[in-house]
Amino acid sequence: MTIDSGTTQTDGQASRGAGRKGFDEVDILWISEGLSCDGDTVSMTASGQPSIEDVVMGLIPGLPKVNLHNKVLSPTMGGEEYLAPFRAAARGEAANPFILVIEGSIPNQNIIEGDGYWTSFGNDETTGEPLPLNWWLDHLGPHAWAVVAAGTCATYGGIHAMAGNPTGAMGLADYLGWDYRSAGGLPIVNVPGCPIQPENFMETLTWVLYHATGAAPPPPLDEMLRPQWLFGRTVHEGCDRAAYYEQADFAKDYNSPKCQVKVGCWGPVVNCNVPKRGWMNGIGGCPNVGGICIGCTMPGFPDAFMPFMDTPPGGGLSSVLIRPYGAFIRRMRGITNAVVNQEPKWRHNEDAVTTGYDPHWRA
Ligand code: SF4
Ligand code: SF4
């Protein structure tokens, strides 16, 4: 299913470019105070196409001017100077349209009935009490021109939201609502990954920024609000080891170059492009380099994929079913491979031409 994410512009957010429908200056308010390890911010800095530096320095043609507010990459000294654009946006007084990026899962404040907080970002200016992440979402959500959830924790809850957790953690769409629409008419844009694949995030952010200028339609999302062009195929469909699977040639341990389905790989049923795209500069990609896929991009992660390293139930069945075909076809290919690995017998240095060449003209 494709989500129609709309193309409208916020009332009151005036067009800044003469004759254009979009904006030419956008703030990115990035809050990583969800329950997380900050790994998505770290991962994002590894992106090369495009890099965050290129986006912020205006080196990508057609993008708006981007003001990035991320605590790891901020040139401010922190404190109130850093918080100022967040506070203004929460009051509905943002200097520019803003994209809210959330990193980390959202704890359930209701279960502690206002007594304390699970995670916070800055203090209340009046009381001095910490402001929970949930307060920021309640105040920024209605004003954000677009909202992007970065990483599996922010998209679907991730590790913090697994069975038995005490925080009631959830993904951003579970908190704001799956039918949430930003001030720019967009649903939440989910970019899962533990952590996010760097270019997956930057490519999505770039698309949203082009959309903000009016130069691009909204990004096409699937029913779990993921960019379709990034999450439309399975790990298995892009895996370097897929030929071993087809030939029923399975690894028995993690030192093998063969298909890892029997040692715990969930790739056949997981939506992720990492084996195609690699991790940094095209290098890596979990099963390509010996790491089983544990489904870290998936809404059911981690519970649905545990215990890690056991043969997935479906993998056990499919590896049995494919064995007769795979074993037969592997033997046939072995024979053919031996044949085509030999040169034809007419390639020699003897006195006669034995190629079958016939020099005589015939009518
Ligand atoms: S290693 Fe995993 S993703 Fe790769 S072919 Fe085997 S099952 Fe598929
Ligand atoms: S291949 Fe699997 S484990 Fe690796 S990033 Fe993709 S979903 Fe996560």
From TrEMBL:
Keywords: 4Fe-4S, Iron, Iron-sulfur, Metal-binding, Oxidoreductase, Signal
The keyword Metal-binding appears for this protein: yes
Transmembrane segments annotated in the record for this chain: none
Main subcellular location of this protein, as a coarse class: other
Cofactor field: [4Fe-4S] cluster
Subcellular location: Cell envelope
Domain NADH:ubiquinone oxidoreductase-like 20kDa subunit, chain residue ranges per copy: 37-206
Matches recorded under Pfam families: NiFe_hyd_SSU_C, Oxidored_q6
Positions of the Cytochrome-c3 hydrogenase C-terminal domain: 231-308
UniProt xrefs under InterPro entries: Cytochrome-c3_hydrogenase_C, NADH_UbQ_OxRdtase-like_20kDa, NiFe-Hase_small_C_sf, NiFe_Hase_small_N_sf, NiFe_hydrogenase_ssu
Signal peptide annotation: none
Family label: Belongs to the [NiFe]/[NiFeSe] hydrogenase small subunit family.
Quaternary structure note: Heterodimer of a large and a small subunit.
Protein name: Hydrogenase expression protein HypE
Lineage per the UniProt record: Bacteria, Bacillati, Actinomycetota, Actinomycetes, Kitasatosporales
